[in-house]
Specification:
2 domains, 12 strands, extended, Rossmann fold, four-stranded antiparallel sheet, alpha/beta, 27% helix, 6 helices, 26% strand
Protein backbone atom coordinates (compact mmCIF):
# COMPACT_ATOMS: atom_id res chain seq x y z
CA UNK A 1 0.00 0.00 0.00
CA UNK A 2 1.10 3.58 -0.69
CA UNK A 3 -0.37 6.89 0.43
CA UNK A 4 -4.08 6.85 -0.40
CA UNK A 5 -4.84 8.40 -3.78
CA UNK A 6 -7.31 6.14 -5.54
CA UNK A 7 -8.54 2.56 -5.62
CA UNK A 8 -7.79 0.45 -8.70
CA UNK A 9 -9.27 -2.72 -10.14
CA UNK A 10 -7.13 -4.61 -12.68
CA UNK A 11 -9.31 -6.48 -15.17
CA UNK A 12 -8.31 -8.96 -17.87
CA UNK A 13 -9.92 -9.34 -21.27
CA UNK A 14 -10.26 -13.02 -22.12
CA UNK A 15 -12.50 -15.45 -23.96
CA UNK A 16 -15.01 -16.68 -21.41
CA UNK A 17 -16.42 -19.50 -23.57
CA UNK A 18 -13.65 -20.92 -25.79
CA UNK A 19 -14.53 -23.71 -28.20
CA UNK A 20 -12.28 -26.76 -27.73
CA UNK A 21 -12.10 -29.47 -30.37
CA UNK A 22 -12.61 -32.75 -28.43
CA UNK A 23 -10.46 -34.74 -30.87
CA UNK A 24 -7.60 -32.44 -31.78
CA UNK A 25 -7.59 -30.41 -28.57
CA UNK A 26 -7.28 -27.14 -30.49
CA UNK A 27 -8.89 -24.03 -29.00
CA UNK A 28 -10.92 -21.60 -31.09
CA UNK A 29 -11.63 -18.14 -29.69
CA UNK A 30 -14.57 -15.89 -30.46
CA UNK A 31 -14.26 -12.22 -29.54
CA UNK A 32 -18.02 -11.97 -29.10
CA UNK A 33 -17.79 -14.14 -25.98
CA UNK A 34 -14.86 -12.21 -24.48
CA UNK A 35 -15.02 -10.13 -21.33
CA UNK A 36 -13.77 -10.20 -17.76
CA UNK A 37 -14.25 -13.19 -15.48
CA UNK A 38 -16.33 -13.47 -12.32
CA UNK A 39 -13.12 -13.29 -10.30
CA UNK A 40 -12.32 -9.92 -11.88
CA UNK A 41 -15.92 -8.82 -11.35
CA UNK A 42 -15.45 -9.55 -7.63
CA UNK A 43 -12.26 -7.47 -7.66
CA UNK A 44 -14.14 -4.56 -9.23
CA UNK A 45 -16.93 -4.89 -6.67
CA UNK A 46 -14.49 -4.73 -3.78
CA UNK A 47 -12.68 -1.78 -5.33
CA UNK A 48 -15.98 0.11 -5.55
CA UNK A 49 -16.81 -0.76 -1.93
CA UNK A 50 -13.44 0.51 -0.72
CA UNK A 51 -13.77 3.66 -2.81
CA UNK A 52 -17.18 4.34 -1.33
CA UNK A 53 -15.96 3.72 2.23
CA UNK A 54 -12.87 5.93 1.93
CA UNK A 55 -14.37 8.46 -0.47
CA UNK A 56 -11.66 7.75 -3.04
CA UNK A 57 -12.11 7.55 -6.83
CA UNK A 58 -11.99 4.12 -8.43
CA UNK A 59 -10.02 3.31 -11.56
CA UNK A 60 -10.67 0.28 -13.77
CA UNK A 61 -7.62 -0.65 -15.85
CA UNK A 62 -6.89 -3.31 -18.43
CA UNK A 63 -4.17 -4.19 -20.93
CA UNK A 64 -4.50 -5.97 -24.25
CA UNK A 65 -5.29 -5.54 -27.93
CA UNK A 66 -7.77 -2.86 -29.07
CA UNK A 67 -10.64 -5.33 -28.63
CA UNK A 68 -9.91 -5.40 -24.89
CA UNK A 69 -11.49 -1.97 -24.53
CA UNK A 70 -14.80 -3.84 -24.38
CA UNK A 71 -13.83 -4.77 -20.81
CA UNK A 72 -13.79 -1.10 -19.84
CA UNK A 73 -17.13 -0.48 -21.51
CA UNK A 74 -18.63 -3.27 -19.41
CA UNK A 75 -16.88 -2.02 -16.27
CA UNK A 76 -18.15 1.52 -16.84
CA UNK A 77 -21.69 0.32 -16.09
CA UNK A 78 -20.62 -0.39 -12.49
CA UNK A 79 -19.52 3.17 -11.82
CA UNK A 80 -15.71 3.57 -11.63
CA UNK A 81 -14.54 7.16 -11.92
CA UNK A 82 -11.76 6.51 -14.44
CA UNK A 83 -11.12 3.95 -17.19
CA UNK A 84 -7.57 3.23 -18.35
CA UNK A 85 -6.57 1.14 -21.36
CA UNK A 86 -2.99 0.06 -22.08
CA UNK A 87 -2.02 -1.51 -25.39
CA UNK A 88 -0.41 -4.95 -25.06
CA UNK A 89 -0.22 -8.17 -27.05
CA UNK A 90 -2.99 -10.68 -26.42
CA UNK A 91 -0.45 -13.39 -25.50
CA UNK A 92 1.89 -11.10 -23.56
CA UNK A 93 3.45 -12.83 -20.52
CA UNK A 94 2.27 -11.84 -17.07
CA UNK A 95 5.48 -9.99 -16.21
CA UNK A 96 5.17 -7.82 -19.34
CA UNK A 97 1.53 -7.01 -18.55
CA UNK A 98 2.40 -6.03 -14.99
CA UNK A 99 5.30 -3.85 -16.15
CA UNK A 100 3.03 -1.73 -18.37
CA UNK A 101 0.29 -1.48 -15.75
CA UNK A 102 2.50 -0.65 -12.75
CA UNK A 103 3.44 2.95 -13.71
CA UNK A 104 -0.25 3.85 -13.96
CA UNK A 105 -1.00 2.29 -10.55
CA UNK A 106 1.82 3.90 -8.59
CA UNK A 107 -0.52 6.22 -6.66
CA UNK A 108 -3.13 3.61 -5.76
CA UNK A 109 -3.97 2.93 -2.14
CA UNK A 110 -5.25 -0.56 -3.00
CA UNK A 111 -5.12 -2.55 -6.23
CA UNK A 112 -7.80 -5.25 -6.43
CA UNK A 113 -7.18 -8.19 -8.77
CA UNK A 114 -9.07 -11.37 -9.53
CA UNK A 115 -7.98 -14.55 -7.79
CA UNK A 116 -7.25 -16.20 -11.14
CA UNK A 117 -7.68 -15.56 -14.83
CA UNK A 118 -10.21 -17.42 -16.95
CA UNK A 119 -7.67 -18.52 -19.57
CA UNK A 120 -4.35 -19.38 -17.93
CA UNK A 121 -5.52 -19.48 -14.33
CA UNK A 122 -2.05 -18.71 -12.96
CA UNK A 123 -2.95 -15.53 -11.04
CA UNK A 124 0.63 -14.31 -11.52
CA UNK A 125 -0.03 -10.74 -12.71
CA UNK A 126 -0.92 -9.52 -9.18
CA UNK A 127 2.38 -10.90 -7.87
CA UNK A 128 4.36 -9.06 -10.55
CA UNK A 129 2.34 -5.90 -9.85
CA UNK A 130 3.16 -6.12 -6.15
CA UNK A 131 6.82 -6.49 -7.05
CA UNK A 132 6.86 -3.43 -9.33
CA UNK A 133 4.88 -1.33 -6.86
CA UNK A 134 6.89 -2.57 -3.85
CA UNK A 135 3.56 -3.30 -2.18
CA UNK A 136 2.30 -6.08 0.08
CA UNK A 137 0.19 -8.77 -1.54
CA UNK A 138 -2.54 -10.86 0.08
CA UNK A 139 -3.79 -13.93 -1.79
CA UNK A 140 -6.99 -15.92 -1.52
CA UNK A 141 -9.04 -13.21 0.17
CA UNK A 142 -12.59 -14.06 1.16
CA UNK A 143 -13.57 -10.70 2.65
CA UNK A 144 -12.38 -7.15 3.32
CA UNK A 145 -13.30 -4.74 6.10
CA UNK A 146 -12.18 -1.13 5.58
CA UNK A 147 -11.33 0.89 8.68
CA UNK A 148 -10.17 4.47 8.85
CA UNK A 149 -8.54 5.97 5.77
CA UNK A 150 -5.90 3.60 4.47
CA UNK A 151 -6.48 0.87 7.10
CA UNK A 152 -7.80 -2.46 5.95
CA UNK A 153 -8.58 -5.80 7.59
CA UNK A 154 -8.88 -8.91 5.46
CA UNK A 155 -9.71 -12.58 5.74
CA UNK A 156 -8.17 -15.21 3.52
CA UNK A 157 -8.37 -18.96 3.15
CA UNK A 158 -5.49 -21.29 3.90
CA UNK A 159 -4.90 -24.97 3.23
CA UNK A 160 -6.84 -27.44 5.32
CA UNK A 161 -9.91 -25.23 5.62
CA UNK A 162 -8.18 -22.72 7.91
CA UNK A 163 -8.73 -18.95 7.82
CA UNK A 164 -6.27 -16.14 8.43
CA UNK A 165 -7.01 -12.56 9.50
CA UNK A 166 -4.74 -9.85 8.11
CA UNK A 167 -4.37 -6.14 8.73
CA UNK A 168 -2.59 -3.45 6.74
CA UNK A 169 -2.34 0.34 6.64
CA UNK A 170 -1.18 2.79 4.02
CA UNK A 171 1.62 4.07 6.24
CA UNK A 172 2.94 0.53 6.82
CA UNK A 173 4.03 -1.27 3.65
CA UNK A 174 3.80 -4.74 5.20
CA UNK A 175 0.80 -6.93 5.89
CA UNK A 176 0.47 -8.01 9.52
CA UNK A 177 -1.01 -11.36 10.52
CA UNK A 178 -3.56 -10.67 13.25
CA UNK A 179 -4.93 -14.15 13.91
CA UNK A 180 -4.87 -17.65 12.46
CA UNK A 181 -7.45 -20.22 13.44
CA UNK A 182 -8.69 -23.59 12.11
CA UNK A 183 -11.83 -23.60 10.04
CA UNK A 184 -14.76 -24.79 12.12
CA UNK A 185 -17.89 -25.19 10.02
CA UNK A 186 -21.18 -24.95 11.82
CA UNK A 187 -22.91 -28.32 12.14
CA UNK A 188 -26.10 -28.62 10.16
CA UNK A 189 -29.05 -30.18 11.93
CA UNK A 190 -30.79 -32.74 9.71
CA UNK A 191 -34.05 -34.37 10.79
CA UNK A 192 -34.07 -38.19 10.77
CA UNK A 193 -36.16 -39.93 8.10
CA UNK A 194 -39.72 -40.42 9.20
CA UNK A 195 -41.52 -43.77 9.32
CA UNK A 196 -38.34 -45.69 8.44
CA UNK A 197 -36.74 -48.13 10.87
CA UNK A 198 -32.94 -47.83 11.31
CA UNK A 199 -32.38 -51.38 10.02
CA UNK A 200 -34.45 -50.74 6.89
CA UNK A 201 -32.53 -47.50 6.32
CA UNK A 202 -29.17 -49.27 6.57
CA UNK A 203 -30.29 -51.98 4.18
CA UNK A 204 -31.44 -49.37 1.66
CA UNK A 205 -28.16 -47.44 1.90
CA UNK A 206 -25.86 -50.47 1.68
CA UNK A 207 -27.89 -52.56 -0.77
CA UNK A 208 -27.56 -55.61 1.44
CA UNK A 209 -29.91 -58.59 1.10
CA UNK A 210 -30.86 -57.59 -2.43
CA UNK A 211 -30.81 -60.04 -5.29
CA UNK A 212 -27.90 -59.50 -7.62
CA UNK A 213 -25.93 -61.34 -10.26
CA UNK A 214 -22.64 -62.55 -8.78
CA UNK A 215 -19.46 -61.58 -10.64
CA UNK A 216 -18.03 -64.12 -13.05
CA UNK A 217 -14.46 -64.47 -14.22
CA UNK A 218 -14.13 -65.54 -17.87
CA UNK A 219 -10.87 -66.93 -19.19
CA UNK A 220 -11.06 -66.89 -22.96
CA UNK A 221 -9.35 -65.70 -26.10
CA UNK A 222 -9.87 -62.19 -27.43
CA UNK A 223 -12.70 -63.22 -29.77
CA UNK A 224 -14.43 -65.30 -27.11
CA UNK A 225 -14.07 -62.50 -24.52
CA UNK A 226 -15.60 -60.02 -26.96
CA UNK A 227 -18.55 -62.37 -27.51
CA UNK A 228 -18.99 -62.72 -23.74
CA UNK A 229 -19.07 -58.93 -23.27
CA UNK A 230 -21.52 -58.42 -26.12
CA UNK A 231 -23.80 -61.11 -24.75
CA UNK A 232 -23.64 -59.56 -21.26
CA UNK A 233 -24.61 -56.14 -22.63
CA UNK A 234 -27.46 -57.60 -24.67
CA UNK A 235 -28.86 -59.48 -21.66
CA UNK A 236 -29.06 -56.23 -19.71
CA UNK A 237 -30.57 -54.19 -22.50
CA UNK A 238 -27.54 -52.07 -23.38
CA UNK A 239 -27.39 -53.54 -26.88
CA UNK A 240 -30.16 -54.69 -29.17
Amino acid sequence: MSEPGFIAAALKWTDLRPDVDPLAGTVHHDGRAAGFSLADAAALEWALRLGESWQLPVTAITAGPPEAQAVLRDAAAFGPRRLVFVTADHDAPSEAVASVLAPLLAGAAVVCCGDYSADRGSGSVPAFLAHHLEAAQALGLTGLTPGEMGCLAARRRLDGGRREHLGAAARHPRVRVMRTAPYRPRPKMLPPPRDVLPRARLLALTGALTERTPPRLARASCDEAADELIGYLKDRGYLT
